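Sat 14:20. Reprocessing the chain from the morning session after the first attempt stalled halfway. Input below, unchanged.
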Amino acid sequence: MKNVEVNFPLIEDITMEVAKKYAMIQPGESNTKAVRAVFFIDPIGIIRAMIYYPMSLGRNFDELMRVVIALRAADAFGVAMPADWRPGDAVIVPPAGSCVVAKDRMEAKEEGVKCYDWFFCTKELSEEKVMNAIKAK
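Finished this time. Tokens:
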């Protein structure tokens, strides 16, 4: 690719100092080369997710974008995302604090929430609502 502007920091790690700190030297791969890794670091510097790839395998950019959108949506709506979640799919409503009795959660009729058990409830979250929320940040 030509004339592409990179607007995020890149590092060169000749001494492997960063690779060692981030556990990117994997047994069975190489003692002198770091594996491919993606770290999702939020605006306050917290590592939220990590994905490691062997050196022989390229990264899945569709999955990387899905993770970014899912993390931002989870933060915006206070929900959790099931495996393979995509914008527009149902999300997981985390259980309330310990003051809520299990029976109360099952009998509660919060609009759009479907409970399968006291600890597992889902709700619909439209793709439009998700994308608007993450664009607003």
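Residues 1-59 form one domain.
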